[in-house]
Amino acid sequence: MDTGRMEAFSDGVLAIVITIMVLKLTLSEGPDWTTLTDAAPVLMAYVVSYLYVGIYWANHHHLVKVAESVSGTILWMNLLWLFWMTLIPVATEWVGLYPFSRIPTLFYGVILFLSALSYHLLQTSIVRQAGPDSAIARRIGKDWKGKLSILAYGLAAAGSLFQPIISYAFYAIVAIAWIVPDVRLEQLFGEIEASPPESDTASNE
Fold it and tell me: Where in the cell does this protein reside (predicted)?
């Protein structure tokens, strides 16, 4: 399968995820500011989840662009990642309604953890297909940032069983760390875009 098809499908799914989240936003009746303040937890949950989906979209764009092709393994890893992403609206609505309850916060953390883990598996599949000496393998390296993010999500989910506010601190830290798209892949994508096609190089020779 061409990488463009997988990226287009993924973009469509993520767009639907955001659409579902915003459609679930509801306000109580009233013309004053208390209408918004009462909905503050729901709005904050939406903002955080929107930020996470946006971060994934930007990094996925660069990841797929540097992939040479899509194997069966890559395709299924991408579908697995999208599966967990489609559950973010459910977790977002629940944690927004009960922001300081342990179980909704735990559920939200588990979904983020599994989303990050499946994305890491997708990235690993693409790197493995390219080979250990490929440009993307050298750029990704040990991927400590990605692995530490997965660990942070796991700690956040565990922390929710004791104090949900601990989980929110971890969520904020990870979001801030990833607010800028993955520079490693962005630079590699720029190099690929700047390099002339092989056919042009051959004709010049």
Answer: Membrane
Determine contact, residues 49/92, Cβ cutoff 8 Å: yes
Give the pLDDT score at 81: 97
Cα of first residue to Cα of last residue in the chain, in angstroms, is 32
Largest Cα–Cα separation, the chain: 72
- Whole-angstrom Cα distance, residue 174 to residue 46? 16
> 31 pLDDT exceeds 50?
yes
Please give the model's pTM, rounded to 2 decimal places.
Answer: 0.84
**In sequence order, what are the residues at sequence separation of 6 or more whose Cβ sits closer than 8 angstroms to the Cβ of residue 182?**
59, 62, 63
